[in-house]
Amino acid sequence: MTGYLSKNEKAAAGGSDLSGTVNIKPQILTKMKRMSEQHKKQNNNNSYLDRMPPEILCHLLSYLELEDLVAIGKTCKFFNQTVQNTNTLWKKHCLAIAHVCQMDIKNDRRDGYPWKVTLQRNYLKSKVKKDWLDGEYSNIRSSTDLPKRSMHQMHAEDWGEILKVELER
């Protein structure tokens, strides 16, 4: 039967890493979309995904890395709606950056922001702050040496934390 992934394609789709997440390559996402569309045509416009319980689909999607979750949301309307409308899919990714932007995430959640919006509001800031804390910019001699996106609006407490780490180096 056509439409199934070969052993090589399954291997290329990415295995799980130690964190239990699955990495899916773009060409595999494209093939998944094409398989779903073929299945829909053969079965009176009903996809096997349409018949899958939403809890199981969300459980499967919860294993995806952030980049893969965003990518699968771009493959078709069904995945886009599922990813956009399932707030819990974004929780683990938001909590993964919480150690860097704990105060901001706590405040956003207190203010009633959903997990996805909280992640969108804090993702870039967490990347920039983590790079600063990891010493990525320790040997910068002038502002012209800074790479793009190395700055982000942060609280004085964040810059104080970065300064303290830099002074300890």
TrEMBL record:
Domain F-box: residue ranges: 46-93
Protein origin, superkingdom: Eukaryota
Pathway: Protein modification; protein ubiquitination
Keywords: Ubl conjugation pathway
InterPro entries: F-box-like_dom_sf, F-box_dom, F-box_SCF_Substrate_Recog
A GO cellular component entry from the record: cytoplasm
Pfam families assigned to the protein according to its UniProt record, in alphabetical order: F-box-like
SMART domains: FBOX (SM00256)
Protein name as annotated: F-box only 48
Origin species: Pelobates cultripes (Western spadefoot toad)
